[in-house]
Amino acid sequence: MTRTTLLSVAVIGVMGLGLAGLAAGPVRADEGMWTFDSLPTAKIKADYGLDLDAKWLDRVRLSAVRLQGCSAAFVSPNGLILTNNHCIQGCTSALSSGGKTDYVKNGFRSVLREDELKCPGATAEVLLTITDVSEKVRTATAGLNGQAFVKARDGAMSASETEICGNKAGLRCQTISFYRGGQYKVYQFQRYTDVRLVFAPEFDIAFFGGDPDNFNFPRFDLDAAFLRAYQDGKPVQTKSYLPWSVQAPKAGDPTFVVGNPGSTERLLTVSQLETQRDLTIPVSQLQRSEYRGRLIEMARASPEARRIAGDALFGVENGFKVFYGRQLTLNDRAFMEAKRQEEADLKARVAADPALAAKIGDPWAEIAKAQRVIAENYLPFRQLETEAGGGSRLYGWARTLVRSAQQRAKPPEARSADYSDSRLAQTERALMAPNPVELDIEVLRLEHWLLKTREYLTVDHPGTRSLLGKESPEGLAASLVKTSSLADPAVRKALWDGGLEAVSASDDPMVQFVIATEGQGKALREMWETEVSGPVDRAAERIAQARFAVYGSSVYPDATFSLRLSYGKVAGWTYGGRTIDAFTTLGGTFDRATGSAPFALPQSWLDARSRLKSETVFNFVTTNDIIGGNSGSPVIDARGQVIGTAFDGNIHSLGGAYGYDGRLNRTVVVSTAAITEALRTVYGLEALARELTGK
Amino acid sequence: MTRTTLLSVAVIGVMGLGLAGLAAGPVRADEGMWTFDSLPTAKIKADYGLDLDAKWLDRVRLSAVRLQGCSAAFVSPNGLILTNNHCIQGCTSALSSGGKTDYVKNGFRSVLREDELKCPGATAEVLLTITDVSEKVRTATAGLNGQAFVKARDGAMSASETEICGNKAGLRCQTISFYRGGQYKVYQFQRYTDVRLVFAPEFDIAFFGGDPDNFNFPRFDLDAAFLRAYQDGKPVQTKSYLPWSVQAPKAGDPTFVVGNPGSTERLLTVSQLETQRDLTIPVSQLQRSEYRGRLIEMARASPEARRIAGDALFGVENGFKVFYGRQLTLNDRAFMEAKRQEEADLKARVAADPALAAKIGDPWAEIAKAQRVIAENYLPFRQLETEAGGGSRLYGWARTLVRSAQQRAKPPEARSADYSDSRLAQTERALMAPNPVELDIEVLRLEHWLLKTREYLTVDHPGTRSLLGKESPEGLAASLVKTSSLADPAVRKALWDGGLEAVSASDDPMVQFVIATEGQGKALREMWETEVSGPVDRAAERIAQARFAVYGSSVYPDATFSLRLSYGKVAGWTYGGRTIDAFTTLGGTFDRATGSAPFALPQSWLDARSRLKSETVFNFVTTNDIIGGNSGSPVIDARGQVIGTAFDGNIHSLGGAYGYDGRLNRTVVVSTAAITEALRTVYGLEALARELTGK
Lengths: 695, 695
What we know:
The structure is a homodimer. Chain A is α+β, with helices and mostly antiparallel strands. Chain A folds into three domains: 3-123 and 193-266 and 557-693, Thrombin, subunit H, CATH 2.40.10; 277-331; 380-537, no CATH class. In chain A, 48% of the residues lie in helices and 15% in strands. Chain A contains 25 helices and 22 strands. In chain A, the strands form four sheets. An eight-stranded antiparallel β-sheet of chain A has the order 2-15-14-20-21-22-19-18. In chain A, helix 15 crosses helix 21 and helix 17 runs antiparallel to helix 19. The longest helix of chain A is centred in the last third of the chain and has 43 residues, at 509-551. Chain A starts with a strand and ends with a helix. Chains A and B meet through helix 9 and helix 10 of A and helix 9 and helix 10 of B.
């Protein structure tokens, strides 16, 4: 392995990786989620006239914080962290106990350090080094396939992590694969496990506009929150942090977003995109929409029903909009045509290089062939395996117990990769977590799943018959939920500990139901792995290798929930004849408020209305290339100051899963200007404002 | 005009219309909904070895009966009519008053003629003559466009109808346009207005399998019913009727279906199909699915809620499946490729004929241009105009009152075509019909519409702002329904009679809401007529003319809810690796029953189980080309005997809206064999069985 410091790699950027003779990558303006060891500094200089030197880059990298599923940044020398409010909702929820201490609804304000509350289980990670271990992995896996390949690869990765992080407390290593196996890098993090809540606004202003405004702009959300990293009971003294700007940017100003985009699928082939467009997204959206309607109606029954169904509804509506945006992009003929051109271009370049062609073969044809298998088998696979149980926790626990018991009864070398000892340890922990179960939602999920299975597969499909027999979906769902004891963690623990013997002998109706029916799903999964995901994964690796061979690091890898930098500028956009301005103001929030959810403002804002500087920039949009996972990412100006925190993308940015479109994709940001004004004028948190601004 | 008798035309068939030199039409085996003055008798002879002579055809035509929205046939010399149970549900519903006399739920059995109950408002029509008036219409409309064209055309049609039908009682004339204005024919009918209910089975056996089995096969439905036509208080003595077969057919037997398919869109261009595939069907399906979920959940509240929501749900689920089937076909790459080929072929043939090319121009390009206007404007047009009100009756009445009042305030020549005096008379009748209003459903429909408008157009669209202002969708829907008096027909009558003055002065909140908001929908409709439907209709006519010029009557016209004959054979099909057999048996019904809706059998069937001949063919499938409107069509064997009544199509037949696929499209039929067995063994209706069989 070659251990390289980030300093030297950052300076090398695109130039030093032997790219002479490589094709110019097909990367458009402002596009890309760039790794810190391969930044397009030359392009940024050319497009924006900015020299991002090593000092700038190191400070930004060491200020960036990775939370669980989100991004953040240090914004003071005392370990203060800026992120989104929705990123810390797990924390505020866990700390709440209803009534006055409903920190989700009412927000949270601390005045003294002592008031700051530890978020249970929260971690914050800072990227220290990146080490290339690609050769090590390639050597260990040479000539291997299937499960043998997977185990050798995992072993080599594990060994590298141990070598780099050792057993040092506070360090964490993670091996990340880039370019679908084109590269393997060990990321070494500083890891803080004492992360405390400092400030959260009320839900009604953090998510003002709710689902109607979600993924849209103009927007009026104070989706910001503050945490603080502690070590040994004291705030971490952070040498690297982002200085705070009280000014909002102007249209056209360059902006940098540093965070952890979760995943993108920009290397999907045209045939794969067509499968999503024509089959997998439409089916899930139709079923999701019906489920959504059921939740909406269920919520009307009582305040308690509204609370329970409302929680579930939030996720369903957000998911609906994500896939709506993706579908919009996949239906865009110009977008698909551009993808066809890209694909044709890469294929032509491979064909023009006989050695490369011999190595790559025709992975596009292999993937297209797999799409035909998908077309024939997707509905049963979805209904009987991937969506089995419809999200019911009781079903999920039962299936985990049954399948884990079956696997644990085998010697470790005979098990599937998902059932290694380390994976089983994680599975057991998740199984025992005391997650409360809402019975009405459980019945709804099972019933909906059974109804849709019968509808989409038809009554006569063996899968339907196997699930229902002479039962009705309504009757079966209700009786399984009513009679199962799996909601009790002690019951689950006993079944886990008792292994296959206990599970097989269990008279729990849900366990029995799963035992009787999960086999068909398992058979479909095995077929799928053999005929679809196996061949597709291997073909996709060769496409990634072809792309890497042709374009090198001039193309960035798909997102991997690890640190990336994206560059762009503040700008609105035009679509369907309407031009959207890049900015909103605090004053505009009151114009939009109606007094009814989700356009009802918290009392604190209504009280502060006359004192707020109404022309303060509230939210703004930029051309930065981001995706889910970037929530909470600091938005940084050319001077390296933080000017906002990214909290959403517009509807077009959802197509960013497949490809970046600079005309339309936008990052949505809440400005530090508005956060400052709110802290001072709405919440009276002078000390916090002073810690940020130095005044 | 040329008045031609059907005798001579039927014999002429394809041969005599001067088709020498025309291209062989692109019509596949068993395809087509053929008019009686242009039957492909030569092809039928070639494919099936059958000579359909004038006697056969006349008897079949004069036995065929058109009901409102359905098809049927005379099956005895005493005016007995066979149709589907679902075709007479309006009648059984209107005659019921709950409890024992719920004829929908419990069915209806008459023993003597005196027991037969008149269906309110039901009519039965028999096709007597077809007269070609194409030249007359062309002369009257020469050189005219837009509204002037429409009025001249309607005038010429009206004059022809008066000439042919005069004022003779019992006759009705209707001018039908074929090939999108390629031909105009006056159809003259014998019209019966005293139609009485003779027999209907219970809902649970007529629609056994409910939504899960709807549009699917295997199927086990007794979707059959009997009516009787009366004149002057006595059963009509029908000289032409179809002899009844107690035998079921065998696989491969030729079958003929005679009925009134409602409408097809087989001349849509590829660009139009893409618009449906990518935009209009998906949007409606997503919104429909959410609405469906709300109804399902609403139905759980109480038995009364189940009844009310259940009625609405039936239509929604049927509609969902229709569009699901259409989407399936539009997503079929082979289907779309065949359409592209057809289109390319027709364009090439037009281009090869300079005179024709000069006349036709490039309607495909004009239609493609209109698709781009659709893409930009569809969502607002849908939400603010075509779907305005979401199906709420109160909203619909208000909008009818407002717009009719506006139009009636203008002199007749200045009104839109929809507001001619004769149209207004129909409108007024419909407005005054005492349709009961279910308030919960009204609120749901309005609320759903407002929520989806806000979601799909966004909060910032002027249309959304105009509808909602500071109201919430939930609040506005509830208050409009609660405070409007339009459910009272007397209130509606007063507003109609009071004209524009009364309407403008009305303080009914729904009327005020419509006055305040319908203008934007109206503006969109005008834009749509100018830039979309106007140009598309004119271009479509030229495509139809091109097609007619190239292929003549060797291609059949799109369905027009007028009498057609289709030919085929009894056959199952194979799809996705599964082969479906062509037949089900009475015995199979009991295997499928579960005791829970929709697989619960009526008591009469459970009681008769041991006495029924279980191997009797119950339902079967054929390759006949049918579409909605053909429900109730007699299925006729080579000898001219009726062997069943068509009541459904399989899921693939829904793509028949766009094109026939003989590998997959199937008609679903309930056999006369099963009907006979049921009448005798389940219902003990010997007299009725004897009237049919003669024994």
